[in-house]
Amino acid sequence: MSKPVPRSLLYCSALHPEQYAKSALTDVMVIDLEDGVPHAQKNQARACVDRFFATETSKRTALRINPLRDNEGLLDLLLVQSLRQRPEFVVLAMTEAAAEIEVVRANLIREGEAPKILVTVETPACLRDIYAIASAADGLIFGSADYAASLGVQIGGWSNIFHARCSIVAAASAAGIPAFDTAYFNLDDDAGLLKECQDTRELGFSGKTSIHPRQISIINEAFTPSLAEYEHALAVVEASQSSGDKITRLKNLMVGPPFVKQARKLVQRARELGL
Q: Rounded to the nearest 10 degrees, what angle do helices 227-242 and 257-272 cross at?
């Protein structure tokens, strides 16, 4: 991605354009035409989106559209085709095959460019073909609520969907794209949100989605390398370079190629975010 990979993606119903201004709080504002809009108000929501993108916006935006297997999804796709200014990202819901991504991208190309496509992994069927889907996408988002509901297990758990998180991160890494973790649904549990951010960052997620603006500051901080992490990574890289890229020692740490590779990635991420 030419711009920094987002740390936070905040969902907002397309029916409430007055709330789009909260995009200043988050790395990316996700304007939602899917679950955030009752079926009877889909046309009204599309009209709100059309008015918003009639003028140029400097904010980073995404538009979540309805599943392509639903007529509403096809209408959403026609809307994106017609927009004067388009979102940076289009978020696909309930994706189950890489072909869906290819259809969307082919229909949104304008002057050789199309919005980046983020795929929400929400079903076991999507997870079945996750490597092919990741290879066709520009990023993956874990939609844990629908995924847990498909399994018939508690929504908001950890161990019961841990396998899905690991599979998503592995597929995204293999494809060279970012993965974004699911929203945290307990809005009053800041400690729990922070812990989940830290744990999912350790798994390899680049950021996290959110359903409330008050969560954004915690998410952004958790997915930003700390100064201590940055300085340690710089020291690892310097130690390797000083040794002629041989395995060397930095205090009590043996520094070999995997450590240097990880350190370089952290340094790059920190610099992307302005550290």
A: 130
Nearest alpha carbon to residue 269 among 210, 225, 219: 225
What does the alpha-carbon distance between residue 178 and residue 118 come to, in Å, rounded to a whole number?
A: 9
Tens digit of pLDDT for each residue in 202-234? 999 999 999 999 999 999 999 999 999 999 999
Which domains occur in the chain, in start order? 8-222 (3.20.20.60), 227-272 (no CATH)
Pair of tokens at residue 42? 């889909």
Q: Is the pTM of this model over 0.90?
A: yes
Contacts of 236 (CB under 8 A, 6+ apart): 250, 253, 255, 259, 260, 263
H or E segment to which residue 120 belongs: strand 116-121
More confident call, 111 vs 179: 179
| 274: CB partners within 8 A, 6+ apart | none
Query: What are the pLDDT digits (tens) for 168-185?
Result: 999 999 999 999 999 999
Q: How far apart are CA 252 and CA 230, in angstroms?
A: 18
The enclosing H or E element of 75 equals helix 71-82
